[in-house]
Amino acid sequence: xxxxxxxxxxxxxxxxxxxxLSKRNIPYQIVDLTKDPQALAIVHAMGYQQVPVVIxxxxxxxxxxxxxxxxxxxxxxxxx
Length: 80
Prior knowledge:
This protein is α+β, with helices and mostly antiparallel strands.
């Protein structure tokens, strides 16, 4: 599973999301919405207005959600 985090610079919730994923050894890629207008259009088309937007397989959410990150960690353990 590839996890994508749509973010922007100096975003506290984005940083917290990166740290939580890294701490749990969950790989992710970051897409900076200030540098990628197509990605911004995708995020807006999904109905999101704030960052981070986390896409993990068929799941997606906005903001920092430790409960969802913990669920992802359980999924990744099952894949190893």
